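#struct-help
A.M.: can someone run this one for me? Single chain, 93 residues.
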Amino acid sequence: MFVYLLRCADGSLYTGCTPDLDRRYAEHRAGKGAKYTKSHPPVAIAAAWEVSTRSDALRLEYRIKALGKQKKEQLLLDAPAETLLGIPAVRFR
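D.P.: on it. Structure tokens below:
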């Protein structure tokens, strides 16, 4: 499972989780992903982390979504290599 942050055309960040990162990104780019990315088209995968279970992915997604934009930007700059917000996660991109 992957937890990812997308950089949108307006500079905003979108957080999601998926078992297939490339497929999900293509869906977002095609306007068939989340409601948010239909009106805020993604331009890049800002970061992605691989986690071992769906449960960990959902918990990490929830924790990232609870952060403000400044903290998300900081997370992109200096996220630890083996844990993220207390959940075992390996930086993928």
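A.M.: thanks! The CA atoms of residues 31 and 38 lie 5 Å apart.
D.P.: also worth noting: The chain has a mean pLDDT of 91.
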